[in-house]
Amino acid sequence: GAGVSQSPSNKVTEKGKDVELRCDPISGHTALYWYRQSLGQGLEFLIYFQGNSAPDKSGLPSDRFSAERTGGSVSTLTIQRTQQEDSAVYLCASSLGQGLAGYTFGSGTRLTVV
Amino acid sequence: AQSVAQPEDQVNVAEGNPLTVKCTYSVSGNPYLFWYVQYPNRGLQFLLKYITGDNLVKGSYGFEAEFNKSQTSFHLKKPSALVSDSALYFCAVGGYSTLTFGKGTMLLVSP
Predict the structure, then answer these.
(1) Which of A16, A37, A72, A89 has the fewest CB atoms within 10 Å, measured from its CB?
(2) SS3 letters across B4-56
(3) Contact (Cβ atoms closer than 8 angstroms) between residue B22 and residue B7
């Protein structure tokens, strides 16, 4: 597609429920990244995919967080048993090759856990 | 480990005046530096990057940034601010695969 597409744009969920966030990168971009943006915290790195593998998942905050990428394209970030501190904007980005090429970001998914 | 500091949470400037948004970095090896801008309810948009070459980098919307190796800084500048420049600005430093972002600086340009 023309840009990075994320869905849903907004998600309100009850504490303890599981949520799935989807990212559709730019066609041909081999690298895909997930970041979390919380108020006053800047952008927190979560996980990086090169193709379908994740060479760096060091930013995932707990084992409730997981992500996968299939077909070198779409990625899903799953948060199990959501907690209120998971409330944030989840941003996905993709790039052609390595990160030095610069990222193209999606508009994000605003997750609110009530 | 790499890190970025944006010492100002907010910068206020009058329209038509020059603006500077500060960024300092820490990285082992050669730095790869980026600026991104975020408008309300939008993702981040790329402004400019420094990989190598001239210390003054020109980017989108009339912005430029000056790389200073001795001061480990990469300040964002614009000669004449516009109200429409009001947004959240992020500095980032790049490793081989991922970028580390600062906490962001809110720029408010008053008419």
Answers:
(1) A16
(2) EECCCCEEEEECCCCEEECCEEECCCCCEEEEEEECCCCCEEEEEEECCCCCE
(3) yes
Residue written as token pair 């790039």: A95
Q: Report residue B8: phi and psi, to 5°.
A: -110, 125
Dump pLDDT digits (tens) for B81-90. 999 999 999 9
pLDDT tens per residue across span B22-76: 999 998 888 899 999 999 878 899 999 998 888 999 999 999 999 999 999 999 9
Q: Mean of the pLDDT values across residues B99-107? A: 93
Residue A31 lies in a domain: yes
Of A27, A46, A50, A47, give the one whose Cα is nearest residue A38: A46
Residue A113 lies in a domain: no
Q: What are the CA-CA distances from residue A57 to residues A35, A50, A61, A65, B86 (Å)?
A: 11, 11, 10, 10, 34
Interface of A with B (CB under 8 A): 4, 31, 33, 35, 40-43, 45, 48, 50, 55-56, 91, 93, 98-100, 102-108
Q: What domain range includes position A33?
A: 5-108
Q: Does any domain span residue A10?
A: yes
Architecture of the CATH domain B3-110: Sandwich (2.60)
Per the domain annotation, does A114 fall within a domain? no
Which of A7, A24, A37 is most worth mutating to test chain B (most B CB atoms within 10 A of its CB)? A37
Smallest Cα distance from B72 to chain A, Å: 19
- Write the residue in B43, B51, B94 that is nearest to A105 by C-beta: B43
